[in-house]
Design a protein that fits this description.
Structural class: alpha+beta
CATH superfamily: PAS domain
Largest sheet: 6 strands, antiparallel
CATH class: Alpha Beta
Helix content: 25-40%
Strand content: 25-35%
Number of helices: 4
């Protein structure tokens, strides 16, 4: 019985460790954005956006995915939700009423790169959680990737 209990405890601890590893880090988000921009520069817009829109492709990692918006808050590419592509999300608000896409679009246009904080529903646990998205201006658009804190 003690052996069985020990095996169960080890399995639970291992599962907890694996789950914790599935949550993306700030560095991973920044690296994914840099990778997407490099791919865009090398392969062009059409090929890059198709690759970013592939939810199982090279621009998604665990809970991280790349998105691209123009400075008018129109979604140009999205690694998690293709239904958003072509939509203007300027008025989209988080649970606190913050228009985070509009704020990110303006910050990308004026500052070039940085982080923006907001709250959003985490798809893995369905809870509203603090989130932060990293963005980098590239021409007349910006590439981004968000992490749950």
């Amino acid at each position: 019985m003690k052996k069985f209990l020990m095996v169960v405890i080890i399995c639970l601890l291992s599962a907890s460790f694996v789950f914790a590893q599935e949550k993306g880090t700030a560095k991973e988000a920044q690296d994914l954005v840099a990778k997407a921009i490099a791919y865009y520069k090398a392969e062009g817009k059409d090929k890059a956006f198709a690759a970013i829109n592939d939810s199982k492709g090279q621009f998604t990692k665990n809970d991280l995915y790349v998105f691209v918006f123009d400075f008018n808050s129109v979604c140009l590419a999205h690694g998690a939700n293709k239904a958003l592509i072509g939509k203007n999300l300027k008025e989209l608000k988080d649970s606190n009423g913050k228009r985070f896409i509009d704020e990110m679009s303006q910050a990308a246009k004026t500052k070039g790169k940085g982080w923006i904080d907001y709250t959003w529903t985490n798809p893995t646990n369905k809870k509203i959680e603090p989130k932060s998205s990293y963005y980098v201006k590239e021409g007349d658009m910006y590439f981004g990737c968000g992490i749950y804190k």
